[in-house]
Amino acid sequence: MDSEFGSLTILQWLSPSFPIGAFAYSHGMEWAISSGLVCDGASVQHWLEDLLEHGSMRTDAILVALAANGEVPKRVHELALSLAPSVERHIEAIDQGAAFSRVMCDVWGHPDEAGLVFVAALGTAIRREKLEVEFAVRAYLHAFVANLCSVAQRLVPLGQTDSQRIQRALFPIIVEIAAEAMNASEADLYSASFLSDISSMKHATQSLRIFKT
Q1: Closest among 10, 134, 5 to 69, alpha carbons compared
Q2: Omega cis (within 30) before 172
Q3: Longest Cα pair distance anywhere in the chain, in angstroms?
Q4: Element (H, E) at 103
Q5: At the N or C end, where does the chain have fewer CB atoms within 10 A?
Q6: Number of C-alpha atoms within 13 angstroms, CB side, residue 203?
């Protein structure tokens, strides 16, 4: 049944209502906002553009595509952890992966793979359900962007209308990165969004915080 309604399945998995707790993670953005590095709509958009084109969103897109296209899940898991620049990024990837895998087991009847990070678990589920990979990668990137826009709405603060403008403005980059991920290999993995990585490290020692990461 899910193959027939593949796009709806992907949208369900990446919906804010799906119980992986994505709303609790800021990906280090909370520290960047508290430090004044991200302070308005323009800086939010630039931050997200960098993650998409040069950072963790681009890396995640490739990892999801690799797992969905048949790479051994454990290999994708190991690659993802090796690329995580901080303890909090490890926590974010592992905890969301465990939550996603539990629902896959309980609702879709997939084998329990709670040890996989989120991108490996998601890509493996896409392959099992024979879903359209490029659409799934686009949806993953959009959900990632939307979640960080939600963080900015609460902390910058960023207005709801401006948040929607930013998400719409990033559509072309999302489509581009998803297309690149489809033909990417391990050799194409890199990250150059150093300020975001440092923010995730700094967040671990932030005295007052709302988000887990």
Answers
A1: 134
A2: no
A3: 48
A4: helix 87-108
A5: N
A6: 28
Tokens of 163: 């948040």
Q: Which residues contact 70 (CB under 8 A, 6 or more apart)?
A: 127
Segments making up each domain of the chain, as ranges: 38-199
CATH-assigned architecture of domain 38-199: Orthogonal Bundle (1.10)
**Phi-psi category of 70—alpha, beta or left, where left has phi over 0 and alpha has psi -120 to 50?**
left
Tens digit of each residue's pLDDT (9 = 90 or more) over 45-81: 999 999 999 999 999 999 999 999 999 999 999 999 9
CA distances from 72 to 44, 91, 95, 117 (A): 35, 22, 20, 13
Residue 2 has pLDDT above 70, yes or no: no
Cα–Cα dist 171/194, whole Å:
23
- Which structure tokens are listed for 208? 């007052």
